[in-house]
């Protein structure tokens, strides 16, 4: 009997994997070429209509993924909490912070945001432009792409530091012509116990936050955004990898969103040029991260009770 059930479970897993893989592949081949074709027209003329159409096509692709999550992964339970003072809508402009544990995080963000927020973008490396289809799609859809230089390169040529800032400013300002959600994984990398120990992080569930990218985004966009949103993602049964998620092996996902007030002093200061401002900014972000760490502990405790 046990062997029979194991075979049934394996068959279901294989069937689910083949279904998900086939649908996502077919959907990508259906939606991808129009985005790339329309994007090529921007080489000759910028068009807001083209941008809006590409976003609609991308949202259609995301809606297929969400349909799979709702109908092929029915065992995954979603616990979504949005604080009452956070008013989200598809025409808004948002900066978003989020903890980062897995490639699943981005899919979770897209699942949550599709019907609640504008298309989510995030900072990407310029080198991704050379990845076929993916890099070009990021560029066409307005993902801020940055040419980041190492400390040694900047030491040899200090002008590169200012060039990086100018590139970031240009990329962010291009978002202002439309609704947007700009996501920042403030830890800069995915959480692992090894990285946590190596950093000697003062937080139980998080790596140390990196302030530079957020400070830059707030400096460029702070006066233009409707809210700074803090998203916390918790996997109560353990951090999954991408295949586990799409095979339906993630029983529960908890999402919590809250609004972070942006102090006036942040919008008036300069992270790059003012040492005192940088110190104060680090303290402000550390407090946000301390609260997020406690929230994760509270959510985990709720599920383990």
UniProtKB/TrEMBL annotation:
GO terms for molecular function: acyltransferase activity. Residues 94-236 form the Phospholipid/glycerol acyltransferase domain. Signal peptide: none annotated. InterPro entries: Plipid/glycerol_acylTrfase (IPR002123). It comes from the Bacteria. This is Phospholipid/glycerol acyltransferase domain-containing protein.
């Amino acid at each position: 009997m046990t062997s029979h059930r194991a075979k049934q479970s394996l068959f279901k897993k294989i069937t689910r994997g083949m279904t998900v893989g086939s649908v996502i592949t077919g959907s990508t081949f259906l939606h991808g070429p129009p985005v790339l074709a329309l994007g090529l027209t921007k080489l000759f003329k910028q068009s807001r209509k083209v941008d809006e159409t590409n976003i609609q096509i991308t949202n259609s692709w995301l809606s297929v993924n969400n349909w799979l999550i709702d109908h092929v992964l029915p065992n995954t339970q979603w616990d979504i909490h949005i604080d009452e003072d956070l008013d989200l809508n598809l025409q808004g402009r948002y900066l978003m912070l989020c903890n980062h544990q897995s490639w699943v995080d981005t899919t979770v963000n897209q699942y949550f945001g599709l019907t609640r927020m504008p298309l989510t973008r995030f900072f990407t490396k310029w080198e991704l432009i050379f990845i076929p289809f993916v890099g070009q799609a990021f560029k066409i859809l307005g993902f801020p792409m940055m040419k980041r230089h190492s400390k040694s390169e900047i030491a040899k040529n200090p002008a590169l530091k200012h060039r990086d800032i100018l590139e970031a400013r240009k990329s962010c300002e291009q978002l202002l012509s439309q609704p947007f959600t700009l996501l920042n994984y403030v830890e800069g990398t995915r959480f692992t116990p090894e990285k946590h120990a190596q950093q000697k992080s003062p937080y139980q569930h998080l790596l140390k936050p990196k302030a530079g990218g957020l400070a830059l985004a707030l400096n460029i966009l702070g006066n233009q955004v409707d809210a700074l949103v803090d998203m916390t993602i918790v996997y109560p049964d353990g951090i999954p990898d991408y295949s586990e998620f799409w095979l339906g092996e993630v029983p529960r996902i908890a999402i919590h969103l809250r609004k972070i007030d942006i102090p006036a002093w942040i919008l008036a200061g300069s992270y790059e040029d003012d040492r005192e401002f940088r110190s104060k900014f680090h303290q402000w972000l550390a407090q946000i991260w301390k609260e997020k760490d406690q929230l994760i502990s509270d959510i985990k405790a709720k599920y383990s009770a």
